[in-house]
């Protein structure tokens, strides 16, 4: 019996009427009142107003479950402009739920497999360690990636994958704070070495709101979404610099000039693209063309959009207003039509489209236009409701790759609760049953074959890589530069000088400049020549690259910047203004006013006026960096003054250490220093009592750090706080009270410290491993899909009692051996009331989850306990407990009071728990 007649038979009379109406009008059945059918028909959730625009007209009739198509059948559902073709290059079951792809220098494709994403409508087990990074090769060069390995396995919803040298990648997990480098040392295609790359990189939130897409920029810095900073590896450690807020979620790409393009998420639009993000944020009116926020997807029919019926285009059931976006790429290849080069592509997975965007630049300002808007169409559409484009990539073969998660649900569980419109649609079409799939597609064009030359950059000589800096495919140029910089081969510097100054190809000159900058070999003489080059594009890149030299002490460049602020080319003038603003050159305000009087270009006018009169910061929601308080700003200003006048003489203006003879530094680098960013006691003790000799086996030309204990606690507090925050570091401020306590504790110190002796006195963080055991009287996840484990207190996910705080609730850690503990840190922050979901436009209701009054108990055997701290009052935010070096194998926190007077449920929550002691 045909399916529709089976349904009529099952539903009886009312079902017959409903089905006939549906068939007769060939449109969705529209219901304006709460309606109930017999059989499997859904109902409007209890309490829903039938006149609510988000529900009005919803079709609640029974539907056949959405079934996944074969790869060949899905390919038939794509709609592309004439001449374009699409073919699969890697598919399920080999991969599952891909979220990002990226190619390394040998053309191998790494796939970020988010195998725990939305396995049911409640995002159950979303933080289980079942995701992976796989690596794939096309060994027979037929265009299909047939050979693969699991490069890194058992990951907790990894945030990104970035190839970083031969057989190595950078990645991090959700709810974590550390980025790790994984390396395959024996060549079997599986990483067997894990190293800490950098820390303080993560943040809390559901998996859609955390940082993602670590990206290696042309300027040799690494950027991610969400985080308002950039990082960079140097010979002396990882450094970081603050940037503007990128307001992005899932996607970063760059154009031929290295300008980054960030992709929004819930906005459904590109987020920040106007100027390089490290210059801060500028407000540019009308940068998105009218009508850009309207998607033109194919008729999907199922209307499974979070916004409800108000966002459904009738009668085809497609999305009428963008609501989500993911993955982006400025196409820079050479095997598709030339009019695609420099165009922006990104996915709208809710609308099942890939959009082509034309960035029109006028007077230095960019406006985005949907190329197919007038045709009420998109570059790529699909009639398959499971098509979920989440990443776009210019490939080594010169074509465009599309990462298709091919998934039933594309919205995190926080927004799919029972009773919601979207949950109703998920249940109606059984979308939660479509999991564990995924496809990677290649887009080609008739008459243009893909490039079959396979990259082998890791195996080629540096001189060969230089030839790729002018390749017509931007992927080859970017990757060759990255491999050369990571290789640190300075034998090619003379050739790079020649290429930067006089090569016939602009692309070659640009990448030669940045390769020199990445190798630390960009000289002042070369920069001065480039700043006076007749080609305005070269002058612009010389300005940007020279910022590194200025920060390192080449202050004479300020005169060049002031001159170029009045360049005849308004884009050069704009770049000179941005560089001057970033470097805070002297007399900038007066120079800007002078430039404004001479140059009426809209771009020059806009950035100059906003530098002189900065606009109020936008509300950037969960993606904005925390604003410093007035007192914190004053501390940094005082500390910077001390550092500039005194410390910079040895440690360098930028904190990277001042060069001395024989390749040594006069003093160690402070920027990006793990020692500086770890426990503050290290820096305070060094300033108080001095340090002599080698540091961690490395010697310095200066020889020693003189003691300065005659300085006040406030003075030391200011300078240490500045060093921990103002030199690309990201660590806590240090109070005068902390300095006083360390001064008292170390008063018996005579003479300067030796490093090996000092490091034994400074508290070190004990890092949890599989041998640590956790227990609690009550345990609940802090969010949907989270892990129900006391161990979650260690990360951003956090541990919760799940119910209101009550007397004698406890949390316990058992160490594998007796530890000498000195400090215990954790954070307890505001959260939404249990069961409450954020509602756009509404003021969220918060509760305070810190423990009110508690004791800290320790034990050597887990049976006999002694109170180490009594009647401790918890704080909202960071809590630091000083334990005075207690030797223990067990530590337990126990509530002394409950919250019987609280009207609403107020659990005890802890995140980012850390234990310090003397090792």
UniProtKB/TrEMBL annotation:
InterPro entries hit by this protein: 6-blade_b-propeller_TolB-like, ARM-like, ARM-type_fold, Cyt_c-like_dom, Cyt_c-like_dom_sf, DUF7133, Galactose-bd-like_sf, Quinoprot_gluc/sorb_DH_b-prop
Pfam family example for this protein?
Cytochrom_C
Keywords associated with the record: Heme, Iron, Metal-binding, Oxidoreductase
The catalytic activity of this protein is classed by the Enzyme Commission as 1.7.2.1
User: SUPFAM superfamilies per the record?
Assistant: ARM repeat, Cytochrome c, Galactose-binding domain-like, Soluble quinoprotein glucose dehydrogenase
| Cytochrome c domain location | 634-727
Give TM regions: none
Residues annotated as coiled-coil are none
Annotated GO molecular function terms are: electron transfer activity; heme binding; metal ion binding; nitrite reductase (NO-forming) activity
> At the top level of its lineage, which domain of life is listed?
Bacteria
Protein's name according to its UniProt entry: Nitrite reductase (NO-forming)
Origin organism of this chain? Aquirufa nivalisilvae
